Every structure is written in C-alpha cells, then in structure tokens.
Amino acid sequence: MNHRRNRMRRIDFMVGQTDFNTLTAAQFMQQDVVYFTKSVKAQSIAAAITTGNFGSVPIVDSDLKPVGIVSEYDLLKAMRQGKQLNEISAGDIMTKPAITVPVEASSAEIMKVMEDKHLIRVAVVDEDGKLVGMLARRDLMKGYLQSQVPDKVWWM
Predict the structure, then answer these.
(1) Which of 57, 72, 105, 120 has CB 3.0 to 4.6 Å from 25, enough for a Cys bridge?
(2) Would you give the DSSP letter of residue 37?
(3) 141 or 18, greater pLDDT
(4) Ramachandran region, residue 30 (left: φ > 0; alpha: ψ -120 to 50; beta: rest)
(5) Predicted TM-score (pTM) of this structure
(6) pLDDT tens-place string over residues 119-129
C-alpha cells in the first residue's frame, strides 16, 4: 500500500463567500491518497478499503499514472464469482480505464464527469497525468456549503 499524508483539503481553509463555480479540483481534492499497483492482491485492497472507510482506490503504473480503479463493487463481484481475494490481483479485477480529472478542472466540469460516469470518487491528475489526489461527491457538496458561508467579521 502506498499513500501520501495530508488529510486536509484546501476547501477546509476557505473562509467567507466564494463563487462555487470558480473552485477547482485542486481545492476540493484530498491529497492523502491510498493507491496500489496492478500486482497487489485484492485482499490487501479490501483491507485498505474497509479500514480506511472509503469505497475505491486508484490503481497506478510505475509513474503514478492511474490505469484503473478497484471499488467495493469490483471486490464483491470477484467474491460472488467464487474468487479468493488473496489469489487475485488488482489488475485482474480493476475497472479500466481510469477516469480522471485534471487538477485545474472546474466544479462544473467535475460534476459533469461524475454524473455522466456515475462516479462516487474520481482521481485527480497533474499536467503530466500523475495522481495527485482523489475527489468525492461529498467534497463537492462540502465545498458548495462552505462557499455559501458569509464572511466572518474580524472580532469573532
């Protein structure tokens, strides 16, 4: 298992009213990303998903470029088919290709991709296509709510 540390999102530090439509993936995304390579056993992914309390993980190549995703659905499908999770790899069960959004994608662009592809989470990539974060529908909703909070006065 690999990951980056930093649970905070830039949106967590936003204060005062902001135009939600001007916010980008960089502001919504979580930078603390758990990711795996195609060779990792599905059992390790199932353990990470259940202990990390998230529903999917990106699968990356050696350059940290997303090549697929393994979700709870993919794991349950393999189990239903009688496969042993400790005998199959992420590459065997991942959904591919990976669907990503660029770090500069607007809130509207992100929502469209998520809606069109029926996604709960989407990988965020930099200009080189490398994984830099994950963004969930909940992150967008939180960003919207925070963008509606009136500016705080300095004495409060």
Answers:
(1) 105
(2) -
(3) 141
(4) beta
(5) 0.84
(6) 999 999 999 99
